[in-house]
Amino acid sequence: MKRCSWSVLLAMQLLCAALPAHASDPGEIPPAPSAPQQSLVVLVDTGSHMPLADIRDGVLAAGLHRDLGAAIAERLGRIPQFKVWPRKRIGHALEQGEGDILCLYMPEWLPGPLHWSMPFFPFTEVVITRRSARRPLALADLADQQVGTVLGYVYPELEHALGKHFVRADTASGLNSLRKLELGRVQHAETTNLFVDYFLKQGGKLDIHPPLVVKTYRTLCAVSPRGSVAVDDVNRAIGQLLHDGGLARITASYR
Known about the structure:
By secondary structure, the protein is α/β, with parallel strands linked by helices. Helices cover 33% and strands 25% of the residues. The protein contains 8 helices and 11 strands.
C-alpha cells in the first residue's frame, strides 16, 4: 500500500509539472491586445521634385519630404503615411484635416487658419551664373537677361529689384533649370544651395561664379487644426531631430 501511494503521488506531481502555467488558474483574464500604432499623415504637393520629392504614379517614393516625415513620425511614435495633393488644393486639404502636417513651407506661402511649428529647416536662395558670363554683384545686374526659373513659382526679390526687366526662363523643375544652365541655354538661374548640391552629387557639371545670395530663411511645418497631432508635439519631435543629429544626417544624404 505504501508503494502504491508513493507511485500515485509521483504521477500527480509529474502531471502538474507538464500542465501550462496558466492552466493552474482557469479564471485568469488574458491581457488585452495592444492598440494599433497611430499614423501621422504627411501631405506633399505634386509640384515637388527631387531632392524634395520623387513622386511616381501619385505615390511618394523618395526625397527629403519622405525622409523628414518619417523621422518626425518616428519621434512621435507613429507610422508615417504620405498623401500627395496638387499645390493649389493642398492648403485647403490640410485645413480640413485630410492630413496632419505639411513641412518645408513658410506661412506666407500658405495662408489660412493653420498652426505652425518652430522654424527649423534652412534654405538659401541664390542666383548662380556661368563663368562665361559676367558675374552679377547685385540683382539689378540681371536686368533684361534670361534667368532660369521654375514654372508656377514666384520670385518676389527678383520681381522687386528688376520689375519689367525681369526675364524668366521657365522650366518644369529646379533640376531642369540647372540642366539648362549646364548646357549653356541660360547664363543665370535662381535656385537654392540644396538643389545645387544635389545636382552636383548626381553628377552634374557646373562651372559657375560664386553664388549671389538672394535670401536665407528657415522653413516650418504647417499643422492641421483638424488633424490628430498637436503643434506642441510636432515641435518636440523637431527639437529631438535637431538635438540628436537626425536632421543633419538627412540633409547630408542630399549633399
